[in-house]
Amino acid sequence: xxxxxxxxxxxxxxxxxxxxxxxxxxxxxxxxxxxxxxxxxxxxxxxxxxxxxxxxxxxxxxxxxxxxxxxxxxxxxxxxxxxxxxxxxxxxxxxxxxxxxxxxxxxxxxxxxxxxxxxxxxxxxxxxxxxxxxxxxxxxxxxxxxxxxxxxxxxxxxxxxxxxxxxxxxxxxxxxxxxxxxxxxxxxxxxxxxxxxxxxxxxxxxxxxxxxxxxxxxxxxxxxxxxxxxxxxxxxxxxxxxxxxxxxxxxxxxxxxxxxxxxxxxxxxxxxxxxxxxxxxxxxxxxx
Length: 288
Ligand code: HH2
Fold this sequence. Notes:
288 residues, disordered N terminus, binds 6-hydroxymethylpterin-diphosphate
């Protein structure tokens, strides 16, 4: 992960602060929630020390980067204030800032983005795609990576009646528009990741259409990141609650990587690592 990748083309590296994430094989983003109400592990890591311990465990298990979130974005979740978000985030981020993997912060608030960068964050993951006033300006002149996610509506109401004429085309057009907005502000393509935003203002059919067509997003020339881990679309298919969705999450991660996802955002790092190792071995296998 050293900074000597200038000869590689767009979409093959992700520059994140002092790190360069090589995307020559799938990378695992481990989720650390510091929230009382995330859909899958709400409350388990609200205590800062437990969140720090969990982050270290995910790195030991093979996480290539971590995503710290202090505001739940699950359907129906209520927003939290910037002060509350920072109170939850900063002790954990400060304790982890010297870690040997990039730390991403899952936030939509420009003030949180700025403070997080000061405290050592290498990436900002914004489910609102940097549409808040001042969000792009908060990051354009830094070295941070930016993950741009598609969301229709806002978490409180987004699952009410999501409608699209052509979900893949509309999500693709939105992400390309956001890449252009970032590029206009001076953000190079090798600092950008895009994410179709599974479950964010999408029903099961929309999510499945996006997963089937995922390969299309690679042509945008930036890194492709997906979050399918323990999501309700997997529950819709299997009938299982969030804490019993590991097998479905693994299957979804493999399908996404086969369709071009370069970074998978997951809760279960060790199991995902093993599954990706099998996929890599099969892809490498020479029939002769
Ligand atoms: N999903 C959640 C949060 N942040 N960021 C990106 N880029 N892609 C995603 O799919 C994504 C995301 C899910 O929200 P939450 O309810 O906070 O649950 P958890 O963080 O446990 O996944």
